[in-house]
Specification:
With 204 residues, the chain is mostly helical. It has 5 helices and no strands. The chain has helices at residues 85-106, 111-128, 137-148, 158-172, 174-203. The chain is elongated, with a radius of gyration of 42 Å.
């Protein structure tokens, strides 16, 4: 019997057949980004740095993380305490009493110097009192002025002489007393207007 022989399969292109053309490659135009092939891993984005951030020397930043802004060494806020009405009165009285004692020891109880030193105390009291107790600053200023006059006023003749010297000093230095009170009132008025404007803008 005759057996039909099947020809062995041949892999690859046959002789005489045209070669299989390869798919054309996409040519990238200048200025056009190349898209990664599907399934390929995308590179991690480079970390962004804001203008106010600084990186310490010798340290490396992990990819994809942002560094917290580091404040400049020269930009530091000044102390801004907030005193209550009672705290403002205690501060003004203690400051003027201390200045009065120093005036008595160093300058021989100079009333003019005491009046000059009263002005910055009024300014600080009006600036450091909190917003809810702004009206107390012009009230505590004359009280602090009178407390500080105790070591400066003339104390000859016992208790009556000290009281008379205190009244005389208040009468002769009324200009400094009124000036410091007016300065404190002006600062309080400006702060009050700014506080009311800020509240109005927030409501809007």
């Amino acid at each position: 019997m005759e057996q039909h022989r099947t020809p062995p399969e041949r892999h690859g292109p046959r002789h005489g057949s045209p070669p299989t053309p390869f798919p054309p490659r996409a040519r990238s135009r200048p200025g056009e980004e190349r898209r990664p092939a599907p399934g390929a891993a995308r590179p991690a984005p480079a970390p962004r740095q804001t203008p106010g951030t600084r990186q310490a020397p010798g340290t490396r930043q992990a990819p994809g993380t942002r560094q917290a802004p580091v404040p400049a060494a020269g930009l530091r806020r000044l102390p801004n305490p907030r005193l209550t009405g009672l705290g403002g009165g205690l501060f003004g009285g203690a400051a003027m009493l201390l200045l009065g004692c120093l005036d008595q020891l160093l300058f021989g109880a100079s009333l003019t110097l005491y009046g000059v030193l009263f002005l910055p105390v009024c300014v600080l009291t009006a600036l450091w009192v909190r917003g809810g107790d702004l009206l107390t600053a012009p009230v505590v200023a004359p009280i602090a002025f009178a407390v500080g006059l105790v070591p400066v006023a003339d104390s000859a003749g016992g208790m009556g002489g000290r009281l008379m010297g205190l009244v005389t000093a208040l009468a002769t230095q009324a200009g400094w007393l009124y000036g410091g009170t007016v300065v404190a009132g002006a600062i309080v008025l400006v702060r009050r207007v700014r506080l009311v404007r800020g509240r109005t803008l927030r409501h809007r």
